[in-house]
Amino acid sequence: MEKPSVFCLLQSWNCQRVSTFYQLQNSIQSVLKTSEFFLPVEFNYSFCAHLGQEPNAEEAREESYLLKSIAWPEPLVLGLPLRQSSDPAQSYYTIQDPGDLQVGGQLVVKVQMHNFLGQPKKHGGDFLVARLHTPELAAGVAGQVHDHNNGNYTVFFPLLWAGVAQVELTMIHPSEAVMVLRRLREEQSDRVFFKSLFRSGYLSETTLCNLCLPHKQQPLCNYTDLQTGEPWFCYKPKMLDCDTRINHSKGGYKKHLLTVYESQFFQSGVNIKIPIHSAGVDNVTVQPAKVQTKGMHLEFTPSGYYYQGSWRPLSGVVMRQFNGSLVITQCLRGKMVYMYGDSTVRQWYEYLIAHVPELKEFNFHSPKNVGPYMAVDSNLNILLRYRCHGPPIRFTSVSSAEMHYISNELDGLRGGSDTVVVISIWSHFSTFPVQVYIRRLRHIRRAVIRLLNREPATLVLIRTANLQKLDPESSLFNSDWFSQQLDAVLRAMFKGLNVRLVDAWEMTLAHHHPHQLHPPSDIISNMVNFILSHICPVRRKRRRG
């Protein structure tokens, strides 16, 4: 649920029945099994958040405000049974007195959450998302959900096109599940674990690695980055030195994370990404704009919306369509495009390679889906590069020599009007305390500021998080709730800087496609068109004096 109050604290800083419950309760099974990789004994990893360089007083104040701004409402009473938790099948919404709706106005929807007993909920904290859409027009826009902390919610939609528009409301998680996710984030940040291979001659060993490890079990190798102070550790091999590390990889996922009680709140088809239906009509008819709608106060202004399948930003840039390799290469002529981050930004690199045959890739013999990658068009002097961000990163195998931090890469760029920087860093931080993400973004923000101070004409775009498909297991590692929390932090930390946000959250929420970690090609094409529209903006005609 996107809470309208997320940035308030930062202003100073720039029909199921009771029987269904019993049937469900009898069928509950643990979604997790034993791990095949040796892990340390039980350990509280919440101290991971406090490793790395100590923030100065100003940064500490900002961190405190950020954490307060994303604080989530708690149930009045913890430990409620499933039958008293939120049941999307018995909850409903109603469209408030639509009256004469016109383009430029807004639609207000009221939501009442009920439990499995059919009783109204008395507290908030459910994670809800909403969109308004017209399938015939391939139009859609995200809504904003306001939590009244009493079981009632209000959803605001801007009215941006004429026609019949349908309301779609989804409960991602009940409030009871969110409390479990918060516990996991603070206490089980090692639930995704990593490993490294060490090799010297014929000897090789593999050990566990992470942002922090219980050092009393065995000696550690300290790979803390000298420039940023970003911490990273591996257990020291028994027979080899620390400087024999050759790679980094995802080790796997911890199992048995939930109690039987907690697992009740993570059931596919019951309380993970379930639609909430209307108590009456679920659509409205929006009339073309009239004069009297101008100046109306809107509770929520999105970054953009879809119409005829194309993303239309509401501010900042005029969207252009770059159909075909010729128009793309003409836009990128003389440009150096540097993409840093996770696999969601790698999708853009792959899209351009697939749609622009003039871009010829260099073969670095990099592992598939890992990189680094580079492609050039020597005739038009185009350079395109992709590099993954530094640990934590859940890739199959990354050479130790290729483990670079984004901030260090940015410090190595000259910058200028011929330079485009694109960053996406969020997904691999979902299992860690938010302070870890704040620290990483702080280093990147400093480097972005240094880059823009050197060369103000450098174009910097930052991709936000997006929604994805969830099931009982993936929710514990990649829940949209984790992503929403990180997304709010990212937006706040880069607010006011000369950077452009690619709003992947709204672009996936507003679209008709099911949510996926890696959005499908028509969403990716809209994202790439958005980026290219910033690289090659529409030139406004000067008025003659």
UniProtKB/TrEMBL annotation:
NXPE C-terminal domain ranges (all copies): 311-536
Entry-linked Pfam families: Neurexophilin (PF06312), NXPE4_C (PF24536)
The protein, known as: NXPE family member 3
Name of the coding gene: LOC107748146
Gene Ontology process terms (BP): nervous system development
SUPFAM superfamilies found in the cross-reference section: E set domains
Family affiliation: Belongs to the NXPE family.
